[in-house]
Amino acid sequence: MDLQQRINAFVKLGHFLSQFQQNGIKKNDAIESNDLFFDGFKHQIKLAQEHNGWFTNKNVLFALENWSNALTDKNIKLWTEKYNFNLENPKRVAIIMAGNIPLVGFHDFLSVLISGHNVLVKQSSNDKHLLPFLAKYLEVIEPDFKGKIKFTEEKLEDFDAVIATGSDNTARYFEYYFKNKPSIIRKNRNSVAILTGNETHEQLEALSDDIFRYYGLGCRNVSKMFLPKGYNFDAFFNAVYKWHPIINEAKYANNYDYNKAVYIMSEFDILENGFLMIKQDEAYASPIATLFYDYYENITDLQNKIITNKDRIQCVVANGFSDSEIPFGTTQYPQLWEYADNVDTVDFLLKI
Predict the structure, then answer these.
(1) CA–CA distance from 351 to each of 68, 89, 185, 284, 346 (Å)?
(2) 315 φ, ψ to 5°?
(3) Are 3-187 and 190-317 in the same CATH fold?
(4) Domain 190-317, what fold?
(5) Phi, psi (rounded to 5 degrees) for 120
(6) E strands in 101-260
(7) pLDDT attached to residue 79
(8) For residues 229 and 226, what is the distance between their CA atoms, to the nearest angstrom?
(9) Using the 8-state DSSP alphabet, how is residue 185 labeled?
(10) Residues 6+ apart with CB under 8 A from 322
(11) Is 23 exposed, middle or buried (0-12, 13-18, 19+ CB in 10 A)?
């Protein structure tokens, strides 16, 4: 199977996913093998929601729509054109996936297969319904994928390299267990926003998407802000108000109530607006319904601090802060060539 065949298959998968949009699910009879898969995938979406209360219909469809937009012929070719894919000896690459947001491990899955390797997937129990079904779709529209994709719930065996995503604690286990294999081991990361106090209402509204999308569970979600001394929070609270209906969702509301009670009993100083608490804290990872912040005195010191803590940070959301920043409101729209932890997965895969 050559690269163009693999690209064509994922483009067809993108077409299939295009039926599942945030504004509704609508069948397109022109899509290949749709009669076999459309109703079944609707059922898998339902199962995913029933199994994991964080995987609401809105969040699952947001993820599917993003992947349908990413998997175009133009995007995939733009992504792959800088690599040499002449693999003579395909390997079996194991992927240990996280389960914090829907299809969070799909980019690794895509990278392994687009590189020409075989994939062995160990999914999180929190996100186990969507990807196996999409893998079956790939095998039907491109039969050469048969035998190249395997899922397991057992101990990983018979593989040549591994990509594993987990917490700081599980990463230590991964590093020991896979010490004799080529590997990418990902740990806890969070995203930060740098504010100056001169942001427009539109920029702060966009930032609210970076904070609240997926309930803040993703590593690309903003969990901490850096603010100038004397920052006035009024504009921020006004802008994020568009997300206030989130408090009507039970799992989020339960976390809000619990964390608020903990803060009050601990006599921590917090600001809150009925659906979000903000707390001054040096940590980068904030609990659900909470956003941490810290003050800075000058930009140079803050830039040095960000560099020093780069291994804890996934995205820096800002306007004019650094060359590596991303605009407000874009954290959950990564391009295919934007790699987790800034580690080029495809380059790694082509060198094993």
Answers:
(1) 29, 11, 16, 33, 9
(2) -130, 145
(3) no
(4) Aldehyde Dehydrogenase; Chain A, domain 2 (3.40.309)
(5) -120, 115
(6) 118-122, 149-151, 161-165, 183-186, 190-194, 222-228
(7) 98
(8) 10
(9) E
(10) 303, 306, 316
(11) exposed
Q: Where are the domains of the chain?
A: 3-187, 190-317
> In b/e form, how buried is each residue of 304-320, taking b as 16+ CB within 10 angstroms?
eebeeeeebbbbbbbee
Tell the residue number behind the tokens 């079944």, with chain if given.
Answer: 40
Angle, vertex CA 285, rays to CA 204 and CA 182, nearest 5:
115
- AA letter at 68: S
Residues 6+ apart with CB under 8 A from 292: 223, 224, 225, 278, 279, 280, 281, 283, 284, 286
Buried b (16+ CB within 10 A) or exposed e, 6-17: bbebbbbbbbbb
Q: Which of 197, 32, 20 is nearest to 103 (CA)?
A: 20
CATH number listed for the domain at residues 3-187: 3.40.605.10
SS3 (DSSP) at 106: helix
Across-strand partners of 165? 186
Q: What distances in angstroms separate CA 168 from CA 175, 187, 281, one per listed residue?
A: 11, 5, 20
Secondary structure in 3-state letters for 252-270 = HHHHHHHHHHHHHHCCCCE
* Residue 118 backbone dihedrals phi, psi, to 5 degrees: -95, 150
Cα torsion angle, 52, 336, 310, 243, sign: negative
pLDDT tens per residue across all 352 residues of the chain: 899 999 999 999 999 999 999 999 999 999 999 999 999 999 999 999 999 999 999 999 999 999 999 999 999 999 999 999 988 899 999 999 999 999 999 999 999 999 999 999 999 999 999 999 999 999 999 999 999 999 999 999 999 999 999 998 999 999 999 999 999 999 999 999 999 999 999 999 999 999 999 999 999 999 999 999 999 999 999 999 999 999 999 999 999 999 999 999 999 999 999 999 999 999 999 999 999 999 999 999 999 999 999 999 999 999 999 999 999 999 999 999 999 999 999 999 999 9
pTM over 0.85, yes/no: yes
Query: Do residues 222 and 191 make contact, with C-beta atoms less than 8 angstroms apart?
Result: yes
